[in-house]
Structure formats: C-alpha cells, structure tokens
Specification:
- By secondary structure, this protein is mainly β.
- The chain has a single domain, classed as Jelly Rolls (Sandwich), CATH 2.60.120.
- Helices cover about 0% and strands about 45% of the residues.
- The protein contains no helices and eleven strands.
- The strands form three sheets. Strands 3, 4, 6, 9 and 11 form a five-stranded antiparallel β-sheet that branches.
- The radius of gyration is 16 Å and the shape is globular.
C-alpha cells in the first residue's frame, strides 16, 4: 500500500515544506469556561488547536490565570486558534460574558 502524500505550502529561503498538522483527538480536553479562570491538565504537545463555544480569553503557561486584561488573548466563539505551547504547560480560560466550553486539541505532525 503506498504512503499517502500530502502537498504542503513551501516557505523559507530553501522552499522547505511547512509541516501539516492533524488533531490528536484522543488527547483532547474540554474545560468549562465561566466567570473564574479554569485550567486544563498539562498538554503534552508543542502545538494546540483552541476552539471555544463562547467568546473567552485564554492564557498559556505553567500555572496560568486567564482574565479580560493584558496578558490573556481573546478567542471568539467558533474561531480556531493554532498556538505553539511548551509541552507540559496548561491552558486557562475565562468567559467574556456567557459560560461555555474551550476545546483543546493537541496537534500531531503528519509526515
């Protein structure tokens, strides 16, 4: 059986292919986002996909506390952010105005 080939965009001075990322659904997390900051479990990946059901703010770190202030990043409902993370760090989130959920999906590189 042949190995599937994925065509990827090229970048850099040597026109190297950019990595293609896939969701690692089995290692995904869902955290409830409310009026106080909530943290995920540590994430064992270098890149994560973040998607929220409601507008929220998130922060990544060793012991992050998200807030509607500088240092946290806004994420609109339904929007997906692909973010670099240091493996072992956590993602924290807090709502903007309505409770919801933040889905965290570690990325796996497709060779």
């Amino acid at each position: 059986m042949p190995i599937p080939q994925i065509k990827a965009p090229l970048a850099g001075p040597n026109l190297s292919p950019l990595p293609v990322l896939a969701h690692n659904h089995a290692a995904g997390q869902r955290i409830a986002v409310g009026a106080t900051s909530a943290q995920s479990a540590p994430v064992a990946a270098g890149v994560v996909f973040l998607k929220s059901t409601r507008d929220c703010f998130y922060k990544i770190g060793d012991n992050p506390v998200a807030e509607n202030a500088a240092g946290s990043f806004p994420l609109s409902a339904g929007e997906t952010h692909i973010v670099m993370i240091t493996p072992g760090q956590m993602v924290a989130a807090v709502r903007d105005s309505l409770d919801g959920y933040l889905f965290i999906s570690p990325a796996a590189e497709v060779a």
